[in-house]
TrEMBL record:
Pfam families associated with the record: Aminotran_3 (PF00202)
Positions of modified residues (N6-(pyridoxal phosphate)lysine): K260
Additional remark text: May also have succinyldiaminopimelate aminotransferase activity, thus carrying out the corresponding step in lysine biosynthesis.
Catalysed reaction, written as an equation: N(2)-acetyl-L-ornithine + 2-oxoglutarate = N-acetyl-L-glutamate 5-semialdehyde + L-glutamate
Domain of life: Bacteria
One Gene Ontology biological process: L-arginine biosynthetic process
Protein name per Swiss-Prot or TrEMBL: Acetylornithine aminotransferase
Organism: Duganella phyllosphaerae
EC top class, as a word: transferase
NCBIfam families: arg_catab_astC, argD, PRK01278.1, PRK05093.1
Subcellular location(s) of the protein: Cytoplasm
Cofactor binding: number and manner: Binds 1 pyridoxal phosphate per subunit.
Keywords: Amino-acid biosynthesis, Aminotransferase, Arginine biosynthesis, Cytoplasm, Pyridoxal phosphate, Transferase
Amino acid sequence: MNAKDTTVTTRPVTRQTFDEVLVPTYAPAAMVPVRGSGLDLWDQNGKHYLDFTSGIAVNSLGHCNPIVVEALTRQANTLWHLGNGYTNEPVLRLGLALTEATFADRAFFCNSGAEANEAALKLARKYAHAKFGPHKSRIVSCLQSFHGRTLFTVSVGGQSKYTEGFEPLPPSIDHIAYNDIEAARASITDDVCAVIVEPLQGEGGVVPGDKAYLQALRDLCDQTGAVLIFDEVQCGMGRTGDLFHYMTYGITPDVLTSAKALGNGYPVAAMLTTHELAATLGVGSHGTTYGGNPLAATVALTVLETINQPEFLARVKQAGDKLRGTMEKLIADYPQVFTLVRGAGLLLGMVVTDAWKGRSKDIQKAAEVNGLMVLIAGMDVLRLAPALIVSDEQIAEADRILRVSIDGLLKA
C-alpha cells in the first residue's frame, strides 16, 4: 500500500465521485446523505430533510433505530458468519417466528427480494417437474410488475424497459394485465407451474390488487395445480397495516417472498412456503453463501418482533388513514396536478393529471429542494412510503412542503 492509499477511508468524496468511479446504473440525487435518525436525514452540507421514502419502503423503523442498532451491535460482537455447512441460533429463532406468524411451515433465507423471488420461481418449477412432468413449466406474471433484477426475475417482471438489451430471455414466461380476471382465466392453464403477483403493485404505479382478482388467481392455481406466489417484498412487513398484505385480503398464497423492510436496511430476504413445496428443494438443490447468517437473522428477528405487535400495526393503519386523508385534501386543492391517491396503509401513490403526465420527477425534485424526500413510481405517480413510525406532525409537515413545492412549480 502506498502513502496515498492510507487515507482512503477519510478521503473527501462528492456526488461527482459517483460519476467517476461507480457503474452508472443509477442517477442519484445531487445531495449526498450522511446521517439519519428516524425520519430525519442530513446531507454533506448539513441540510435537513424529512424522509418519506424510507429507502424505498425499507427503513420501516426509521434510520438508525436504537433497538435495531443495539441488536446488530450485540450480534456483531458475538458471531457474524458461518457458511451453510452450519446453522445458527438467530436464524432458527427467525424461522420459528416467521412460520408462527404466517401461513408458512418453512423458510429459506437469502439477501434480497430478487433472490427470494428467484428461489420461489425455482421452487415452483422444480415442484411442477417432480409432480407433473417437464411440460408444466410456464410462469404467468403481470404487466407492470417488478420482481427483481436477476435475468430470471427481470424477465418475469412485466416491464420491458428493464429487459431491453439482455436478450435472449428465459422462455415460458407470459404476462397478463393486472386485475383482469378474464385474462387470468385465459392464460392460467394446465401447463402453468407458477403464478406470481404483487398484492399491491409498487414500482408499477402503486396499484392495489382487487380482492376478486386475487381470489380468482387462488382458485385458478387450485384448479390447475400451479403454485401461487405473492411477492410482498415492498408491501409486506407491516407496510399496509397488517404484517403481510395477504392477511388483509384473507387469501393465502403457496409461497410468499419478503425482503426490504425485513432487515430495516440490512440485506436479508425470506421465501416462505409449505411443508409439501419445501420438500422439493433437497440438499444441494439451491443455496446462498450469506443467506441466514447470524447478523442478518438477528436484525430481521428484531424488526419482526417490533412490527408484529397489535399496537404497532394499529398505529400504522391510523397513520395510513391520516396520510391518505391529508393527501386527498391536497389533491382536492390541486386538481390541475393530481387526480387520485391509491394504495394501502403507508404505501400511497398520487396519480398526476394528463396535463402533468411524465412530470412526477419534477415534483419529486421540487420537494427535495424544499427538504422533503419522496419517491416516484413511473413518471406519472408520486409515491409516499414513510417509515412506519411516522407521526401526525411529520405527515402535516410533508403536506406543507408538498404544497410549497407544487406552488413553486405552478408559478414557474
